[in-house]
């Protein structure tokens, strides 16, 4: 049985107090939301904080607030099950509600939070193993080692972003709110991530993700599709988030396509996006945009299923996601 290492546990009542605790203990402290990712990682000694700051008693982080313009501010501690079943999200943000419903199992969605899923640690076949297994092959550069076993000649880590919500939240151009000792800042969700398996977030260590702000419903449609081995539980080996903006004549004004599960961040399919803008969403255009998505879907042998098949199926899933927006 894998056991948690020893740590000191804190339950502050406000975001300010949580940030102060993190600042006081520095790199030896970590925030915990639902714990469905952090605690297993701690058992495998991938993360070993000496101080764990729980966010569960911070009431403001559990709120889901519909604004006057129809936009939605979701507290980072809102549980996934509550969001999956939220009537307003189901009616006006069905792509996000669907992406949340695709996360893991009902039991873990009862515990997991939207903030935790947005900040999910990057994953890899060589990293997500027990300490003893990783030690037996020599540790990888993501934790305790100096080599990437996916690409031994590479100077960087190729662990993948495996969140279901990140591709669709980024495609929708949602924003996130971050609180630190210096105050509060708000950035685009896209700007929260970087293409690095280790330093995969631009968020500073002392910053706390407090809210996700969804744009007001309008002349746009979004969709999300997920590829995995089993119909439940598994992380995505490909997650396609699409958002399209249309004019009154049905012409695509703007297009965002994000590919999750194939890189260390949700990769933009920029060639596909350029093909779509300025045109009606015909079957021929959808097929061409899907084909153009093969290049950025740089699948590597670091997750489940065959790497070459995963790359070839990316255009199919992009095309299906585009049709869902039509």
What do these coordinates show?
The chain is α+β, with helices and mostly antiparallel strands and 326 residues long. The protein has 12 helices and 12 strands. It has helices at residues 15-25, 38-43, 80-84, 87-92, 94-101, 106-111, 114-118, 131-137, 165-171, 270-276, 283-292, 307-324; strands at 8-10, 29-32, 51-54, 64-66, 72-75, 175-180, 183-188, 208-214, 220-227, 238-246, 252-260, 267-268. It has a 5-stranded antiparallel sheet. Strands 9-10-11-12 form a 4-stranded antiparallel sheet, sandwiched between helices. Strands 1-3-2 form a 3-stranded parallel sheet, covered by helices on one side. The longest helix is centred in the last third of the chain and has 18 residues, at 307-324. It is globular. The N and C termini lie far apart (49 Å). The mean pLDDT is 97.
In short, what is this structure?
With 326 residues, this protein is α+β, with helices and mostly antiparallel strands. The chain has 12 helices and 12 strands. Helix 10 (270-276) runs antiparallel to helix 11 and helix 11 (283-292) runs antiparallel to helix 12 (307-324).
